[in-house]
Amino acid sequence: MAIKDAAEEVEPLLVDHHSIDLRRAASNSTSQLALIGSSVSPIESLDFEIFENELLSQDWRARGGRAQIYQYVLLKWTLCFLVGLFSGCVGFFNNIAIENIAGVKFVVTSNMMLANKYMWAFGVFAVSNLMLMMFAAVITAYIAPAAAGSGIPEVKAYLNGIDAPEIFSFRTLVVKIVGCIAAVSSSLHVGKAGPMLHTTACIASLLAHTGSHKYGLTWRWLRYFKNDRDRRDLVTCGAGAGIAAAFRAPIGGVLFVLESLSSRWRSALLWRAFFTTAVVAVVLRAFIDFCRSGKCGLFGKGGLIMFDVTADNVSYHLSDIPPVIILGVIGGILGSFYNFLLDKVLQIYTIIHEKNRAFKLLLAICGSIFTSCCLFGLPWLASCRPCPGGISEACPSIGRSGNFKKFQCAPDHYNDLASLFFNTNDDTVRNLYSAGTENAFNKYSILLFFVTSYFLGILSYGLVAPSGLFMPVILTGATYGRLIGMLMGSKSTLDHGLFAVLGSASLLSGSMRMTVSVCVILLELTNNLLLLPLVMLVVLISKTVADCFNLGIYEMLLRLKGFPFLQGHAEPYMRQLTVSDVVTGPLRVLNCVEKVGNIVHILETTGHNGFPVIGEPPFSQMQVLYGLILRSHLLVLLRKKYFLSSRFSARTNVFDQFSGDDFAKCVSDRHDGIGDIVLTAEEMEMFIDLHPFTNTSPYTVVETMSLAKAHMLFREVSLRHLLVIPKFPSSAPVVGILTRHDFMPQHVTNLHPFWMRGRNKLFQFRNSTVINMFRGLWL
Question: Dihedral of CA 524/546/507/571: which sign?
């Protein structure tokens, strides 16, 4: 269900002459809540618009000079460097912790199996997995519920202009790091890329908030970042750094944010994002070189993040194109079906999570035990295979990693299914990507592992713990690709490891609907540029096929969580409606010189974030729209008691009493309310002159503008409020205010159900690549 911003809720109360009845008395009844992590929380919109009034203009002129500009530019680049530095350190710490914790667990279990203590081995394996999983679930459920899941939908919503409590708090950051390490180390079928992106976005947001009194850092330079615009840019750089740290793919990180996350992009931001990810790559390279000396425990024994395992020379011919096309088509079908099943499972999990925390933990316990049983029990179904001759790798490999796991087999034999199940996800992907291993795996073992990993990835994601989708999808796709390669046999000259890489690309594109970023990430992962033409072909086919069935996985999660996300295109039905058809009322307005009691009453009885300011005689010749003032600014005026004894009293010099920093947005703004301000009866009868504090240049549209055109303006400029003015002079200078919730299909359906009849049937293919291409040409 679409969300109605709590700070923009419309109440059906009339406030004397301060209410203007609209042509519709119905209010926007969409919800005010969204699912953040594993808990339902209130949300609000962000203020990306540049606010222009007398006070801020004078304050900016007072700061004028090249020194101020240099400080601002230097601060932005310094913070980008710090984001990259901290992201690289956290990425290395996560990897070294997971490799060592999971590695010790597998070594201990393997040693017990060598001693034929199979039941003890299973007990140690299952109990250690359960303890790690419960630790991650408990700290997530009780300390930071916003840390559950991957965090990518929350970051994507934030960059679209939606904010929620705790998504970037320090508590969420700590739980995200520790919980992700525990969850991935517990052999749960989840990844660390999504949580890593959320972690680095938290780092960026916290660095951007360092100018707040909340953290005790009030250095004057930091005041430049007391606005949502600069914080959004830094969070964008942080998100790219997360992908770069997870996959050691700096260019792929930038492209992933550009293609899948960011709603607003420009060349200057591209430059800073690339610089941030480059810092991450340098930091990781330095740490990895240090670990190659053997000082990092088990880290590096199985691999160093990058899957540098494909053949040096990749050759393919025209006859190999049909198998690649088949791979892409099946990958699109499997990816869309993956999204469909995940949607249904998450709906069931949401019902369970709504009960209480005990049910969340019980679900996590069941998931951990079931996963441990599959990973330890299913390899017993495979028969032992003799070790191949002429290989450089040890066979069988005992303990940490390798393509040839001994498991229960006799000497000089290995269990191919255990090589896939009884391993970390990273090592399993590395085994599947390995070139020259055509005879290492039985096709029935690959089929069983594919089915199991496909459904384990779906069942594991919704548990109350930090968890990502990237690695499970990459792993499942690699298995499916290798299976296709084995079934093709001599009909294709491509190596089975190359088929595994193409399978990962096809399933990623089919599930997440990414194209360019998938190509670059996989090329950086495998360190092989020769794969580019085949990867490009398979991702284009896979995305095209999958778009015909349903939404991408992140769009699906945004809808499921209830975020009022503004898409980059307007729906066709919006061209049949005007903005006056969707505005709801009544509307609260303020006079340029307003009584304190009236302001307090409006703030107490509504949740609006912005209020139109109307100029009336004698301050203007006629009733006109003077501008827009924010709720937070009104609270500052009331808190500082900037009052006049009468409506016509001469105002004092506001520049001596206020500065631009007084109206800057801080971390704690959400917690300040009208209830915290104490006013006397005498002060309630006084007045406030709103002229110096009103934004005199708000964005306005005429009431006859189409809803589609207003939608594009609202999203492209990243607005929070869009004032609707009458086409012809009337008694009311403003008709209403549009917020993001007025563009939501649910709101339009409530007002105009006849426009939406048969919409699902008519636009069931509205998200296909072909339809989007023609829509782009049309709009």
Answer: positive
CA nearest 339: which of 247, 448, 156, 461? 461
Residue 585 has pLDDT above 90, yes or no: no
The pair of three-digit structure tokens given for residue 757, joined into one six-digit string = 């009849």
Examine the domain organization and report whether 39 and 82 are in the same domain: no
Average pLDDT of 34-61? Answer: 80
Q: What residue type is 528 in one-letter code?
A: N
Same domain, 579 and 506: no
Query: What pLDDT was estimated at residue 704?
Result: 92
Render pLDDT for 688-713 as a digit per residue (tens, 0 to 9): 989 888 999 999 999 999 999 999 99
> So what's the pLDDT on residue 159?
94
**277 shares its domain with 358:** no
Closest CA relative to residue 549, chosen from 341, 773, 258, 779: 341
Q: Which residues contact 48 (CB under 8 A, 6 or more apart)?
A: 161, 228, 229, 232, 264, 717, 718, 719, 720
**Are 219 and 352 members of one domain?**
no
User: Which residue type is seen at 415?
Assistant: N
**Same domain? 75 vs 215:** yes
Same domain, 132 and 243: yes
CA distance linking residue 9 with residue 163, whole number of Å: 15
CA distance 236 to 254: 9
| pLDDT (0 to 100) of residue 248 | 87
- What is the C-alpha to C-alpha distance for residues 411 and 130, in angstroms, rounded to an integer? 31
Residues 6+ apart with CB under 8 A from 116: none
- Alpha-carbon distance 546 to 559, whole Å? 18
Task: Name, in order, each residue with C-beta under 8 angstroms of 311's C-beta and a sequence gap of 6 or more.
Answer: 435, 436, 495, 497, 498, 528
Report, in this order, helix, strand and coil percent for the chain, each rounded to 5: 60, 10, 30
Residue 482 lies in a domain: yes
Residues 31 and 149 in one domain: no
Give the number of domains in the chain.
3
Shared-domain flag, residues 90 and 130: yes
- Assigned domain for 203 exists: yes
296 in a structural domain: no
Q: Which of 114, 125, 699, 69 is nearest to 377 (CA)?
A: 125
Range of the domain at 72: 67-291
User: Are the CB atoms for 243 and 252 separated by under 8 Å?
Assistant: yes
Residue 773 belongs to a domain: no
Give the CATH number for residue 464. 1.10.3080.10
Which stretches within 209-307 are classed as H helix? 228-247, 250-256, 267-290
The mean per-residue pLDDT over the stretch 300-306 comes to 51
- 42: helix, strand or coil: strand
- What's the whole-model pTM score? 0.89
Quick: pLDDT tens for 369-406.
Answer: 999 999 999 999 988 888 877 666 778 776 666 678 88
Look at residue 156 and tell me whether its pLDDT is greater than 60. yes
Q: What is the mean pLDDT of the chain?
A: 84
